[in-house]
């Protein structure tokens, strides 16, 4: 839809309201707060809501001109009223307890299919279609791929391990940390639990995948959950792939990923409202200048609109990553190799869904779950090796989602009636180092590669289905790890700020902590950099609030 005068008026009103809000907050701003939160990502908002409700005065300071961080919906393409989840898009790890505690009105919607993986067999285009609800559908589809029922049975056995793991772990995520040995004892109850512990915690995930599964496509399907967002391979001795896998499978004990109705911005909006209702104040467009921390006092200096401010706080919560914090306290940030980000995200607006070469499957069915391309197990070993050697992989593994097939409320009615859809591509094995030297050139190359990957399965190129802006540009936007770091501060574009952590601590000394503590007694991490952080979960926000409340 072309933008109208009315729309322009709404936008300018919003800008006016922002400015008005800013003047109001600036006038009312105190010189001292109980808690200052640096960054207003969704976790900062969760922490603010809990602390405000506990009666503490809270101020959030955000560098961008919006709140929500990586949990945001934006009108990415100027002439079209389509609000895309620009970074994160699916929810699984957000605990029911936080939704209840904060009275959030969230509608998380199940997708009609879990996944679709196209493949070629005997010269014919086919697809592996897995269901979220219809086990028989999944069985038939796996049997059509492999020739018998063994792989389906084995896959069920394999996923039973993560189900058992989730049963033991999920409820502990909002509690103080437990030492590894004690955690292990909790699994020492039956053979399946012991096997879950061994396969998911003690040995590289690749071993269990290869022990349980034989088919390359099925193995690859499982492996993607261990690779999303990070740069790793099945036998990585760091076990970062195991940690990443666990976070993708334990959410609310089911591990199901759902579409937030209204887009990810609806989640941030609900949290923003909860934080504001609790009395929290927020400033955007903040240029943070200096932090003065000594364990007892916290002073924060920042500028907005050219005016310098200095504010004291009893507690400081840090929503951005440890990398950004290190810069402000003048310390050298020493990342682990596993902290490297490795994601390429493409946001698209389509005039119509493309038809598939696998003609048995309507596009609306194939694209409503997770559409996998070039994600075979051996294929991903190859692409990882090529990226490790500093090259863009020949075949770039990726997953594609069409959220408007589950929730079209993010499109204006005119776009809906004309058959428009949003499409998101999440690319793997594209580490930050590939883009560090010449981001613009590499971004273009990577975008082309990912579209090629998709086009091999389509009757018509994806480019032909893209909406076109008034200036003639195709409605496609790509974000490399360099772009993600620029926009949000996430270290080397790591979508979880840094490598995912275990849900327990290695030693007894840290037992009983919340995983949010820093070297300063009154400074806590409240974002994805905390232990058990990462993803749209609100968990570190909740846990940081609990740590502060334990002090007061
Ligand atoms: C492309 C992409 C796709 C993803 N997909 C999913 C998904 O589908 N599902 C899922 O669960 N997770 C997903 N994730 C991960 C998830 O979005 C993040 O882990 C989560 O949103 C982080 O939330 P947070 O509040 O901890 O931090 P952030 O969202 O990183 O918020 C930190 C805030 O700090 C601000 N900030 C940074 N520097 C400064 C500064 N100097 N001064 C002031 N403010 C500053 C940032 O602007 C930001 O608003 C994805 C992430 C990305 C990038």
Bound molecules: flavin-adenine dinucleotide
In round numbers, the mean pLDDT is 95
Number of DSSP strands?
A: 18
Strand content: 15-25%
Structural class: alpha/beta
Quaternary structure classification: single chain
Give the distance, in angstroms, between the N- and C-terminal Cα atoms: 52 Å
Flag low-confidence runs.
1-17
Number of helices: 20
- The helicity comes to 25-40%
Radius of gyration over alpha carbons?
23 Å
Largest sheet: 7 strands, mixed
Envelope shape: globular
Features:
552 residues, 18 strands, alpha/beta, 17% strand, 7-stranded mixed beta sheet, binds flavin-adenine dinucleotide
Q: What topology emerges from the helices and strands here?
A:
Blueprint: H1 5-28, E1 32-38, H2 42-53, E2 58-61, E3 73-75, E4 83-85, H3 96-102, E5 108-109, E6 115-121, E7 124-130, H4 135-146, H5 150-169, H6 180-187, H7 191-202, H8 205-212, H9 216-227, H10 240-249, E8 259-260, H11 264-277, E9 281-283, E10 287-293, E11 298-304, E12 307-318, H12 322-328, E13 344-350, H13 363-366, E14 370-373, H14 377-388, E15 398-401, H15 413-417, E16 421-427, H16 432-435, H17 439-455, H18 462-465, E17 476-479, H19 481-488, E18 523-525, H20 539-551
Parallel strand pairs: 1-2, 1-12, 2-9, 6-14, 12-18
Antiparallel strand pairs: 3-4, 5-8, 6-7, 10-11, 11-12, 13-16, 13-17, 14-15, 15-16
Bound molecules: flavin-adenine dinucleotide.
Flavin-adenine dinucleotide (FAD) binds at residues 38-44, 61-64, 69-71, 87-91, 93, 286, 288, 319-320, 324, 343, 345, 484, 488-490, 495-497, 527-528, 533-536.
